[in-house]
Amino acid sequence: MGAKRWCAAAFAVAALGVAGCGSSSDDGGSDTAAARPATNVTAPKAAETVRFGPVEAGSGRGLKLGYVSAAESVTFNHLVTVGVQRAARAAGAELVTCDSQADAQKALDCVKSFKTQGVDGYLLYQLAADSSQQICAAGPQVPVIGVSIEQEPCQRAFLAVDDTAVGFAAGRDLGEFFKQRFDCDYDAYVSLEYSPAGRSNTDRMQGYADGFASVCGEIHGKRKLDVATTDAARQQFNDVLTTLPGRDKIVTVGIADFVVQGALAAAKNAGRADDVYVSAQGADPSAHCDIKNDPQWINDAAYLPERWGEIGIPNLIRLIRGERVQADLNVPFQIVDSETIEDAYPALKC
User: Fold this and answer.
1) Packing angle of the helix pair 75-91, 285-293 (nearest 10 deg)
2) What residue ranges do the domains of the chain occupy?
3) pLDDT tens digits for 277-336?
4) CATH superfamily of 64-161+306-331
């Protein structure tokens, strides 16, 4: 697969980690098929990216900023928090952080506390897209930047990766692998999703499917699993494996690293580790060595969550100062594999 270039994009439910079980669905299609002609899917237009960069020292002096974290128990989310804290320190701003613990009510309580503490603006990263209206209403009426999942109606800008573009890029790369290795012959296509993320989930996972189909043709044997934790992914994927006895080319795509880790654990426990080929999103440290060393982990999308603060904090300060910022703060991403993961993380040691 060779070297991959950095691309423009926008989101990361790679940062999920909520408690829950989930559900599954099946398209009812055949589990086997010969290689099919690629579909006439057009690659999404690349969004304009915002570059990572140093934060202007002292630019936030005298300001009190807020940050609602999605769930600190999840590596990706914690890395976003670390980056936000680092950027706020560099700007000389006071930062109030609050962990929503993947709970919409806790996120609402967080923004209420921001109102009491008099924050001048805040970054809102919470996972329940259908609760954003109530959460926005409960918080102070100050500039807000939504993170990863759109936070309407209060967000003035959205910091994320372009879900359609990042899904398509990873799916197309996975399709190229299957074309080169198996002439696009595969037994099933399993999509590990998280529906509470709303449009972010839909756009990313449809992008995955479109990207794969652009190389290998219309998808067949599709299963969709709605999962919120590694354990839920492991349990549901184990159930899928029981419906595919003897099948050894199972395409598996996931909205985040941790759900794919659950799928691989299920395959290993079933003695079928070599039957599953995965692609995931986020490339957080928990997955680095798997991407590097596991031949079943075909690719991943890296978005460098530890640097998101370099974009979020300066733009929040600009909004507070009355300046205009672009509505979509699109984070760069890179599709990585065993050969290119060290391009994104040069200090990687496995």
Assistant:
1) 120
2) 20-44+162-302, 64-161+306-331
3) 999 999 999 999 999 999 999 999 999 999 999 999 999 999 999 999 999 999 999 999
4) Response regulator (3.40.50.2300)
